[in-house]
Structures are given as structure tokens and as C-alpha cells.
Amino acid sequence: MEPRTVKINDLRTRIARADYDVDVDAVAEAFVARMLAVHGALRRADVRELLGDAYDEIGVAAQKSCS
């Protein structure tokens, strides 16, 4: 069995026995961070689709202005 599968099975067993405390704050922070990352990626994809080739040109110009 793969190590990841073993770890997941171990966690399931511990949770079933109530031998595992879930850090709800850490879970919430991870969830929000993931959703923000996905949202940002989708927005970049939408902008890229709207601008087409101009998107890359704008990105190069922005990098030059920041250096």
C-alpha cells in the first residue's frame, strides 16, 4: 500500500475512535486560502481569454515597469 493511503486510513481510524482533534481554524484558513487561489486563477484565465495575445504583452510591460 502507498504511504499516502496508509496515512489516510490511519487518520480515518483515529477520527472514528475520536482520537484525532480537528483544528477547525486551520481547516477554515486552508479552505479560504484555496478558494481565493482558485478565484484568482479563474479571474486571470478570464482576463487572458478576453485580452488574448495582448495579455502576455501587458504582463511583459508590467514586469519591466516594476524593475
State the main characteristics:
67 residues, mainly alpha, 3 helices
What does this structure look like?
With 67 residues, this protein is an all-alpha fold. The protein has a domain at 22-67. 82% of the residues lie in helices and 0% in strands. It contains three helices and no strands. The protein has helices at residues 3-16, 24-51, 54-66. The longest helix has 28 residues, at 24-51.
Low-confidence parts: none
Mean pLDDT: 83
How can the largest sheet be summarized? none
Individual helix count: 3
Radius of gyration: 21 Å
The proportion of residues forming helix, as a percent range, comes to over 70%
Distance between the termini: 50 Å
Structural class: mainly alpha
What best-fitting shape do the alpha-carbon axes yield?
Answer: elongated
Write the SSE topology.
Blueprint: H1 3-16, H2 24-51, H3 54-66
In a nutshell, what does this entry contain?
With 67 residues, this protein is mainly alpha-helical.
